[in-house]
Specification:
single chain; mainly alpha; Rna Polymerase Sigma Factor, Chain: A; Arc Repressor Mutant, subunit A; elongated
């Protein structure tokens, strides 16, 4: 009886403290992981939408992030907050998905597609107003990725270069390109 009371007290305390949910989830507690999911899924989805530019893909990527989080939760060291760790995991999942999509394209083909992706016929209709989310989604994949990581998520050019495997000069160039395209799209 005393063990049952102690167990119930521990569970109640764990619900009150999110760090305890992390520790419980790391030991395989699905209820604790579900609480972490409910507390963080909206933010992870927002990151995925901004980086992927597609809500359907973002839904799948969000699921992938939480599957990966469940698998790697034992590697969470607590050096940063859980939400920071999960944010980084989400960025990595999206970047890895982008790499897998791009492996079959040559660099020149990708540049041609990026240019043609932005010049969609529906975007040139006079009087059409684009909000920022639509304008970001219309950016070429490389420019969108760097724009979101730098201007939305706050990463430095050096961090972005390391994440994406390009030079800092390339990230600066892509960011400039993204800003010019956004300015053009939003001034229409």
């Amino acid at each position: 009886m005393a063990t049952l009371a102690l167990s119930q007290t521990t569970t109640t305390t764990a619900r009150a403290l999110p760090d305890s949910d992390v520790a419980l989830a790391a030991t395989g507690d699905r209820g604790a992981f579900e609480r972490l999911y409910r507390a963080n899924s909206g933010r992870v989805f927002a990151i995925c939408v901004r980086m992927a530019g597609d809500r359907t893909a973002a839904e799948e990527l969000t699921q992938d992030v939480f599957v990966r989080a469940w698998q790697k939760l034992d590697q969470f060291r607590g050096e940063s907050s859980f939400s920071t760790w999960l944010h980084r995991l989400a960025v990595n999942v999206v970047l890895n998905a982008r790499k897998q999509q791009g492996r079959h394209r040559s660099r020149h083909d990708e540049m041609d597609e990026e240019t043609s992706d932005f010049a969609q016929p529906g975007l040139s209709v006079p009087g059409m107003r684009l909000d920022l989310e639509q304008a970001i989604a219309a950016l070429p994949p490389g420019a969108r990725k760097v724009f979101v990581l730098h201007d939305v998520e706050g990463y430095t050019h050096e961090e972005i270069a390391e994440m994406t495997g390009v030079t800092t000069g390339a990230t600066k160039s892509q960011l400039h390109r993204a800003r010019m395209l956004l300015r053009e799209a939003l001034n229409r």
